[in-house]
Design goal:
This protein has four helices and two strands, in the order ββαααα. It is α+β, with helices and mostly antiparallel strands and 123 residues long. The chain is elongated and about 70 Å long.
Length: 123
């Protein structure tokens, strides 16, 4: 890191590191520039993060115990996993029925040419 000037203000807050390595094509030099200036832009937060930030600002503390964590994880597992399994099952059923249909003449009956069958199965 470059030292700041005697007045205490830093004109350049970038850290430069030079690395030299030897690759297949000979010696190579890389410069890594790291900016240590604080960002003035703020990214939008989701509702949960905004709620936690508001609670901390009001002096409240949110504590999640291991029992709460287990209960929430179990609830997510009971809701999300059946939905995922259903969607994967329907996708498999769809692909299987399309492949059987192609064996039994879907391509010739519907006059598909070129990549049209591949496109129909990739949706």
């Amino acid at each position: 890191m470059r030292p700041s000037d005697p007045s205490g203000s830093s004109q350049d807050s970038h850290e430069m590191t030079t690395m030299t390595g030897k690759g297949d094509s000979g010696a190579q030099t890389f410069e890594v520039v790291t900016d240590h200036t604080p960002s003035t832009t703020t990214q939008p937060k989701d509702k949960a993060a905004a709620l936690l930030e508001k609670a901390e600002a009001d002096g409240h503390r949110v504590v999640v115990t291991p029992e709460d964590n287990k209960r929430i994880l179990r609830r997510i597992d009971l809701v999300i996993l059946p939905i995922l399994l259903s969607v994967y099952g329907l996708q498999s059923l769809d692909k299987t029925s399309l492949s059987y249909a192609s064996v039994f003449g879907l391509i010739t009956d519907t006059h598909l040419v070129g990549q049209q069958y591949s496109v129909s199965t990739s949706g």
